[in-house]
Write a structure and sequence with these properties.
Blueprint: H1 6-11, H2 18-23, E1 41-44, E2 51-56, E3 63-68, E4 80-82, E5 89-91, E6 95-101, H3 105-108, E7 112-118, H4 123-127, H5 146-165
Antiparallel strand pairs: 1-2, 2-3, 4-5, 6-7
Amino acid sequence: MEPLTETQIRSSFVNCSKGEARRMRLPLDFATLPWEDLDFLGWVDPGAPLRAHLVIPGESGPVGITLRMPANRNTSAVKSSLCGICLTSHASSGVALLVAPLAGAPGREGNTVGVYLCADLACSLYLRDKRRPALRTTRYEESLTLDERIARARGNLDSFVARVTAPA
């Protein structure tokens, strides 16, 4: 992913107001992000821990999506979960259902769409083995190359963006 400026990030959001985009806090490590290892920028808002944000590169510029994190992340009844973007298997609390308001009028009316994501939003790092799930019980071996896994994750992300931005 190409590095983005704060202005590019804040102006990219499609499902929140300009005021909300102005008030969100960028990742604490923004100045040192490993842009070359990122397929998208994802972070939990340091000033609002129940808010998360994704910025995905797009053909006509980055697309930002704001999401709600679950208030109760206790999923002890579930032994493992799978991220819907990178397909990384995590122990129960490593995947969270994040909910995004739809863009435009449908979102203002309360309509949302959800996706199961790595709770730390570090899908790109898991794909590249730069981060490992905390309590992985089973490692699924794939015959796909890194480029193919990245393309699959990107396709899953693009599908999610399309669901958020679909016209009413």
